[in-house]
Amino acid sequence: MASSTCAVLVFFMFSSFTLNPHVKQGYMTARARYVLGGCEYIILFFAVFFILFFHAALIRMRSREFALFRVLGMTPGQVWRTVFAESIVTGLAAIAAGIALGTVFLKLFLMAMGALLNLPVSIPFALPAQSVLLTVALFGAVFVLEGFITAARTALHTPKSLMLAERARQRADKASWWLVALGIASIAIAYDLAIAHSLNIIVNFFPIIGLTALGTYLLFTQISVKVLGALRRRPLHGVSLLVVARFAHRVRDNALVLTVVTLLSATVLSGMGAVFGLKSLVHQNSTQVDPFPVMLIRPQAGAFPLTANDVSRQLAASGTPVAGQVTFSVAAVRAEEAGQAGSQPVHITVVSASTFERVRQHLMDAEPETRSFLTDAPPAPGSGRANVFVNYPLVLQKPLFSTNQIRVLDVPEMSFHLNGQYDARILNEQMGRVSDFVLEVSDADYAKLTDALPETAKYEITGFDVPDWKHALVATSALQNRLNAGQKPFLTARADVDSEVTQTLATMIFAGFFVSVLFLLACATVLYFRLQWQMATDKRQFSSLLRIGMRDREVHKTLTRELLLLFFAPVVVGLVHSTVAMVDFSHLIAVKGNPWPVFVVVAGIYIALTAFYFAVARIRYARQVLP
Description:
Elements: H1 2-18, H2 21-27, H3 30-61, H4 63-71, H5 76-116, H6 129-155, H7 159-163, H8 177-196, H9 201-232, H10 238-248, H11 251-289, E1 294-299, H12 308-317, E2 324-337, E3 346-352, H13 353-366, H14 371-374, E4 385-389, E5 405-408, E6 415-422, E7 438-441, H15 443-452, E8 458-465, H16 473-480, E9 491-493, H17 494-547, H18 552-589, H19 596-625
Parallel strand pairs: 3-7, 4-6
Antiparallel strand pairs: 1-8, 1-9, 2-3, 2-5, 2-8, 4-7, 5-6
Helix pairs in contact: 1-3, 1-5, 1-6, 1-17, 3-6, 3-17, 5-6, 8-9, 8-18, 9-10, 9-11, 10-18, 11-17, 11-18, 11-19, 12-16, 17-18, 17-19, 18-19
């Protein structure tokens, strides 16, 4: 009941936030709203699994009760109606309690979101009717479906199977070498798809998830049987012999629990590790995204609303004065691979070698952080040759041009031989007509090219050095208001990008925190049901062991080792899975920086929480089981 209420509560608050009319009218970016909307459906998917799995486990714990009802004359239809009615009543209570608690805590939720997103004003409280209807409809359908399935499954069991369900699997399992090989192959293929084929993650995502889940289940059902069998053939004694023997007889009972906890643990670790790791990497690479704190592009043809002096005055008036600036000319052209019919033209910005060197030196002097990617620039190209510089965050895994010979479509008689492709950025990230792919050519070739180009292909760029760029958002917003939609891409600012990325990442962290809490609650609940299910058997077995002479210290040691395996085996396997996921993540984003320290911190926190829950469960379970 509490777990279902928690799932309803979180979904209701998220949907109330995303459907809040004030939020929809622009309190946050569309990307951040998209992140929260995605989290809603993650929570809903989780809730379906959560409710189906745990209610089934609860019904299984009451199998003797239903067996007694059947023996006393209750028909399968009556059992079905009883279980179904219980599910509906539980669902209605959970939905009502979740919506009520969500309404109570919604204002705090809105305040927290406003603080995290650094909004200028607080988000007004609103309780959208659509959010209430959506929560009732979706979770109502979930509880009806869950009640139907669970009731049908319970009604189909005979009184004997219900009465003996607790002992149905108390025998040593046997493993198949074919299934062992399948489990190892599934995990190996999933890891290979994640590490060696990171760029195809959109296609490989679901195969990786499916193969990992299958491999993990077979790891705990087949591979563990082989390992335990090998241990039992060794000369064990004392507590070790007892622990191995008891686990060997409970492999299949524990397998589903261990698999679920492993996958949930891996999800929490990799999800939060990736979000915090991305936040760290964005901070480490913000200068590489936009080397100039503010950059203005002015077309040389026609009038333009802003000049470099306008930008300097506005920045100074807003308390973020300019410390220096550099102005240079570029040309925007289209280039394609020579001799490759039908190749896709690439929009690219051409600069002269002297201009490139002047801008590079200016950036390294004004922005020391740019030295990491600007220091090792290639030599200036000679006549008929060129250097290509790709844009962050590509650090392209493959060349922008598949051949070394390209030609300029706008000036067909001009072609260049490429010396190579490099990662040295001198332009801010661009979304307009001026590309942030840069083609460096010799001064003579640049003069010849620009003489043949129309004025509409020529631009003047001014980069501004703003030491206090993080507070330049007010100035850049005022300047953007003077431009129409087509002109806005010509003014770029690091503060604008930083604000949007920070807001999106803050949303991901906030949403990820709630999802992670739900997953941690799920892990705790799974382990709780596992312990409750085996409690009666453990009471009988430990009482018998004490009667035949086993010492209290040995019994406590046996219980401790078993619970250690039950709690930490999934964490260890989950850590391996999430480590592979982080390797995939680091390949996918392909930027400079180190996300691993953040992942280690996340893993450490998760292990500490697991250790705390283990300590509490160990003390309580020992009091319940041992005489």
